[in-house]
Amino acid sequence: MDDLKLDSKGRRRVKYCPCNKSNRDGKFVPFIAHEAHGYCHSCGESFLPNSGTLVEKHEPIELPTFYHDRKLVSQSGRRFKENNFVQFLNKHFPKEKVKEAVLRYLIGTSDAWQGANVFWQIDDKEKVRHGKIMLYDRETGKRSKRNFNTFRNLLEIPLNGTELKQCLFGLHLKNTEGIKNIAIVESEKTAVIMSLIYDDFIWMATGGKQNFKYETLKPIKEFGVVAFPDKDAIQEWKDKSRQLNKFGFNIRVDDCMEGMDVDANTDLADIFLFPRKEDNAVQQILSKQDLVANELYKRNQTLGLLVEEFDLVHENGQEIYLNVN
């Protein structure tokens, strides 16, 4: 076995050490051309092929999910006059609507920094998995990338044999009565803003482009999903959605920003809050039912008179949006 060499650059390709510890920290270094053999800096063991130390691959032990005490959510749900994100929303939307959105997503306020807010990840069993603390500018709505923390880190809460398993922001809204379609965006901020603009969907967020994956989306597999990636993630989300749809998902990725001359990190909320005339964004974000109605309207504009005269709506009660310009 003298020809065995450690693959230090490939340590991230192995998810678990043969001793069953997670390799998320990269402490297990496999040998080149081997997956189950190498050296584990965590347990200090060398796992050599045919050495008798360990020759079979062990199944990883799945740790239970970490949950926050629900009381933390209710305790953070106050002092919104000090919350920069909520005050930014109040500048663009009716305060009553903002209040409804805050309660719907259970947005909190944090003392981590003056004006900071909390985005709680609450799963479809109403259990609190994670709390992300962020700071926004109350005038521009821009996020300070230097100011980020988590509630668990802030309170120094140990995992104690559990594992952080993030879920979609807004996943608890899956239990909303009569829900039909779900819209997925990347940032929590965008999900909240779009819920105030376009309520034809239940809006959820992955909290990062890399979280658009099977494990995160599995709880909403039975729903029709429309994904609205940021400009720089359109192709990545399209590729992933094709893979996911092979496993029974029903995901359509909207690419309305693909042809827009905007920055790579532009998201849907940017387009709607700060629209450019040439983007015509509102008319590109129509639901599938609206797209059908608009196609019929192009062929026979009498449909517009019928919609207006008889107050026609979609089957789900949503208003029919016709592009009459």
UniProtKB/TrEMBL annotation:
Organism (species): Flagellimonas marina
* Superkingdom of this protein's organism: Bacteria
User: InterPro entries from the entry?
Assistant: DUF6371
Which residues belong to any copy of the DUF6371 domain?
83-231
Protein name per Swiss-Prot or TrEMBL: DUF6371 domain-containing protein
